[in-house]
Specification:
Length: about 160
């Protein structure tokens, strides 16, 4: 059974373990790099989970951590960030559960648009987002660590 738990600064240890696993397993999927976080002090992890208005969740399957995602409010929309499903959780509905949780949060804060960014070539993630009704935009995404690749920005009207 998939369980989605909203977390905060006091859950920094659980979140840090998942985040480091994500950065190690999928280094090209995120704007951050493992080296940026591997030696981060507790205070930095707590600060990341203390952003005003943010929503962070961890997914577990039968008590085993299986994924994570976050939502951040922006001026005219909300943004889905830090989405990752552990290899053991893939194909089991974890991605769908995380997407639904963040979309429900975004609607709850009154957002009418939810945006996200995905690395070109990350077809499993891109396809998940398409299945959830997101569309590609022409908006330029952030530059990745390679200094060449830009993230693909997608959005969904809620």
């Amino acid at each position: 059974m998939i369980d989605i738990q909203a977390i905060g600064p006091d859950d920094w240890k659980s979140w840090s373990e998942l985040r480091l696993a994500a950065l190690e397993e999928a280094p090209s999927a995120f704007g951050s790099q493992l080296a940026d976080w591997v030696d981060a002090p507790e205070e930095r992890w707590r600060e990341r989970l203390s952003a005003p208005g943010a929503y962070q969740v961890i997914a577990t399957i039968d008590g085993t951590p299986a994924g994570m995602a976050g939502g951040f409010p922006d001026d005219d929309h909300a943004e889905l960030v830090s989405m990752w499903v552990a290899p053991a959780g893939r194909g089991k509905g974890v991605g769908n559960a995380l997407m639904t949780a963040v979309e429900d949060w975004a609607r709850g804060i009154g957002a009418t648009v939810l945006k996200l960014s995905v690395v070109p070539g990350n077809d499993p993630a891109h396809n998940l987002y398409l299945r959830h009704g997101y569309v590609d935009t022409d908006e330029p995404g952030d530059l990745m660590a390679d200094g060449v690749t830009r993230e693909l920005v997608m959005l969904k009207h809620l």
